[in-house]
Amino acid sequence: MDTRFLRRSLALSVAAFLLLSACTHSERVPDPDGDVLTWSIWNGYDKFLNLLNETYPDIELELTPYTGRNRTGYSWAQMRGDDIPDIFITSQILDKELAKERLLDLSGYDFVNSFSTRILDQMAIDGGIYLLPVNYAMYGIFYNKTLMEEYGWEVPRNFAELESLCAEIEAAGLIPGVIGTQLTGGSFSTVFNLAKTSWLTTPAGMDWERDFLAGNATAKGVWEETMDYVQRYIDMGMFYTDPEDRNDPQLILDYLGNRKAVFCTVVTTVNITAFPDTGDELGMMPFISEDGSKNIYMYSPVSYLGISKRLLEPGNEKKLENAIRILSLIYSNEGQTTLISEETPCVMSVIDSGEIPEDSLIYDAQQAFWDGRAFRMTYAGWENNLVNIGQAYKEWFRKENDMDGAQCISRMDELQNSSLTQSDLLYFCESTTDFTLEETAKLIGKALGSAVGADAAMISVGEFHERYGELKSSVTGKLYAGKINDEIINTICPSNEGGYAIMSMTGAQAKQLAQEGFDADGNGNPYPYILVTRGDKELVDSEVYAVAFLNKGYTEKVSQKNLAEIHDGSLLDFLRIWLVEQKRVSPDGNPWE
C-alpha cells in the first residue's frame, strides 16, 4: 500500500485526537462518492477540528501526520512531486511559481475579505492568492517585566537608553541580556533582525538581498556598519551566551525566571506570560534601532494554507466546496480563536477583526504589525546557507575560533559563492522514482542495519493516531524522485535522533513483532512495522538475529524481553553515508548485502 492513514470520519478523528473516550459525536458511514478531503495535519489544530465537526458534521477528512525533521522542506518536496494533499499546509513560501502551478487561486472567495490589503499584497503572486497565513508568531526581545518595575527601569526607546540601562543592570549584579545560540538559525536571525532596524528593510536593502542571493552582490562593503552595531550589543552585555548552550525555553525560565538576567534575545514563542515559581510577568519589547526611529518586531506565519488545484477537475465539486468551507471557518473569528489560546501568547490573528487586550504580551507587537513596524523573518532564499552563516555568528557570540564581525562578513561571501558555483556538489545521490511511505521506511532500515552491523532492522511507519507525537521515531515522509541532498534527508528522517538499539530475537519473534506492530500508545492500536533483512532473506524461525531499532521505536516490554542494547549514533549520518555509497536508489534496488 502507498500510505497507512487512519481513515475515519472527521467525528472519529477528532474524538481520537482529543482523547475523548466518552464523546457524543455520532459515527457516520464514509461518503460512497469518495468526497473525502486529505489534509497533512500539524500540531495545534485539535480545537479547530472539534469546531469543524460541530459546524460542518458532513465533511469527511483523511488526516495524515508529519513529524519528521523538516516539515517545511517536506511540504515542498510533496509540491515538487505533485503529491500534495487536498488542503496544503506549509510554514514558508519557497517557490512562488510552483505554488501558482499547483494551488487554487483563492482571491475570488469571500473569506479573503477578512484580510487587510497589506497582507493580501504580500501574498499576491501575479495577481493571484494561492497561500494564506493562518496566524502570525511575533518576535521581539523578552524581558522580566516585574524585575524592571521593581528597579524602576523603563523599556529603552533607543540605543543610548539601552546602553545606559545595561550599565545599571551590571551595577546591580545582574546580566543585562542572554542570547540563545543552541540553534544556529537563532544566531542568524539575531544579526539579521538588527540589520532590519536600519538598512535591510529599505528598498536598497531589499535590492542587495536579491542581488546577493543571485550572486551579483557581496556582503563586504555593505554589512560592516551592522556588524559594528552587533559588536556594541556584545560589548554592553546584551548577548551573553549560556555556557551550557541550552535551548531557548530553558534560557528564559532560568535567566529571566530566576532573575539572573533582565533581557533574553531568542527566536521562539513562549507558552507563559508569568513565571510559575515567582509570578514575575514576562514582557516583550522591539529590537532597538540606533536612534529609536525604527524599533521593530519580527513576525513569521505559523503556517500557510492553500487548496490543491486538482479540486477544479470534474468530479471534485463537492470536495472543493468542502475545502472552501474549511478555510472560511479558519478565517472567521471563531476559527481563529481555536488556534490562539493562553498557551500561544506570542501568536496573533491574521484577520482584521482579531484584537487582543492592551495588557497582552504582544499588544505592542500587534500594533507595530498594523502600523508597518513589523517585518517578516528572513528565511526564503537563504535555506542553503542559513545554518552555516548562523554558525559563524554563533562562534562570534561565544568567542570561539577568534571569530569577529569582519570574519563573519567574509564567511557570508564565501558560503554564498560556494553554494552558487558548486551547487551540484550539494547533491550526493539520486532517487530514480517516487517511493511510498513503506518503501522509504525500508530504505531507512537498510541504512540503519548496514551501519550498525545488524541482521535486520525494524522501522515503524506513521499513521494518524490520537497521540501522534509518538511518531518521532516513525517514518512519516516519503522520498520523491530527484536529486538528494542534506535537506531531502531531513525530510524523510524521523525527528528522534536519540541513537539506536540492538535486540537479540529469533526469526519467529521478529516476524511476530513485525506483524503486531509498534503499540506506542499501549492501547492496542499499533503503528505498522517494516521489517528489513540483510539481503532480503527470509528469517529462519529458530535462528537468533541481531535486530536494529531506532531509539524509542519500540515499547519497554519489547526492550526488556529482548535485552535491548542501547547505542549512540546518528541516523542522519548513517543515512547520508549509505546514500553517498549508493549513488542512485530505487524501491526495488540497492540490496543490503
Short description:
By secondary structure, the protein is of the alpha/beta class. Residues 1-33 have low confidence and may be disordered.
Describe the structure.
The chain is an alpha/beta fold. It contains 21 helices and 23 strands. The strands form six sheets. Strands 16, 17, 19, 20, 21 and 22 form a six-stranded mixed beta sheet that branches. Strands 3, 6, 12, 13 and 14 form a five-stranded mixed beta sheet that branches. A five-stranded mixed beta sheet has the order 9-8-10-7-11. Helix 2 packs antiparallel against helix 13 (333-339) and helix 3 (71-80) packs across helix 18.
Query: How much helicity do the residues have?
Result: 25-40%
How far from one another are the termini? 25 Å
Radius of gyration: 25 Å
Shape: globular
Beta percentage is 15-25%
Number of strands: 23
Poorly predicted runs: 1-33
Secondary structural class: alpha/beta
Mean pLDDT: 90
Tally of DSSP helical segments: 21
Largest sheet geometry: 6 strands, mixed
Key structural traits:
alpha/beta, 593 residues, five-stranded mixed beta sheet, 21 helices, 23 strands, disordered N terminus
Layout of helices and strands:
Elements (H helix, E strand, L loop, with lengths): L9 H8 L19 E5 L4 H10 L5 E5 L5 H10 L6 E4 L5 H7 L14 H7 E2 L2 E2 L2 E8 L1 E4 H7 L7 H13 L3 E5 L4 H12 L7 H11 L10 H12 L4 E2 L6 H9 L4 E5 L16 E4 L11 E11 L9 H14 L2 H7 L7 E3 L13 H9 L2 E3 L9 H12 L7 H17 L7 E3 L5 H16 L3 E6 L12 E2 L6 E3 L1 H7 L7 E7 H10 L12 E5 L10 E7 L5 H6 L3 E3 L3 H12 L1 E2 L8
Parallel strand pairs: 1-2, 8-9, 8-10, 12-14, 15-23, 16-17, 16-21
Antiparallel strand pairs: 3-12, 4-5, 6-12, 6-13, 7-10, 7-11, 15-18, 16-20, 19-21, 19-22
Helix pairs in contact: 1-2, 2-13, 3-18, 8-15, 10-16, 15-16, 17-21
